[in-house]
Amino acid sequence: MAHAGAMRDPKDLTCWLTDKDGVLVHGDRPIPGARELIEFWTEHDIRYLVITNDSVQTPRDLSARLRRAGLRVPEENIWTSAMATAAFLKNQSGLKTAYVLGEAGLTTALHEAGFVLTDIDPEFVVLGETRGLSYEQITKAMRLILAGARFVSTNPDTSGPAADGIVPATGAFAAMITAATGRRPYVVGKPNPMMMRSGMNQIQAHSEHTGMIGDTMGTDIVAGMEAGLHTVLVLTGSTDAGEVDAFPYRPSRVLDSVADLLPLLRG
């Protein structure tokens, strides 16, 4: 497919960021070419990071899940929206206390950033991906926000995939809390370029020499573009070729899958 703008040559890039779902895996099934791409990066000492809005699992859990799909990605090569949120909050002023609506990926990241998790006058209310929200938890979060707690969420996604269909996600629960309180959260995950920059810091990447692979124009591609990266849209996830023209910006390249990236890297 035609692509827009002057482009860097993929084989000259020294670092890569890649989304997980729709790029490397569908659920627990690897996407053709994903294993070979990870192996190529590893064999050629090319720094890479799997960067995902998934805040449910820790990097160790995600690494194990990817391994079951045949992809050997060490936990230090994984950067989640939970980790980016913890990194952001660690550098914010105020007490390191938070009331958290989320799973182990988020609570672990906040603990490692030095936070105390509490529902007594916290500095922050932090919302992440979770399937276990209760009416009592949402009510508590609303009251804390109205009492002055700063509202932060890990990602904007309003829905996500499950084995039996879509399910509500972080953005949908955030919208409910916003409707009740009038307070909008600061959202750290993609498409916020802050998540990209914090991930790049982890692998000491520079935008001029880094590529971003994603399957979603409105998160992966725009985030990569705003961070100054070479962007590659693959059509194995949530975007098909016909949808690209609906956006006012374009990825650097559009490929059918990551399998089509490998020949470009080999030169």
UniProtKB/TrEMBL annotation:
Q: Which superkingdom heads the taxonomic lineage of this protein's source?
A: Bacteria
Entry's CDD domains? HAD_Pase_UmpH-like (cd07530)
Q: Which residues bind Mg(2+)?
A: 19, 21, 215
A molecular function GO annotation: metal ion binding
State the active site: 19, 21
Give Gene Ontology CC terms.
cytoplasm
Binding residues annotated for substrate, in chain numbering: 190
How and how many cofactors are bound, per the record note?
A: Divalent metal ions. Mg(2+) is the most effective.
The record's annotation in Gene3D superfamilies points to: HAD superfamily/HAD-like (3.40.50.1000)
Alphabetical UniProt keywords: Hydrolase, Magnesium, Metal-binding
Any Pfam family hit: Hydrolase_6
Q: Which cofactor does it need?
A: Mg(2+)
Show the InterPro entries listed in the entry.
HAD-like_sf, HAD-SF_hydro_IIA, HAD_sf
**Family, similarity comment:** Belongs to the HAD-like hydrolase superfamily.
Q: What is this protein called?
A: HAD family hydrolase
Lineage, broadest ranks: Bacteria, Bacillati, Actinomycetota, Actinomycetes, Propionibacteriales
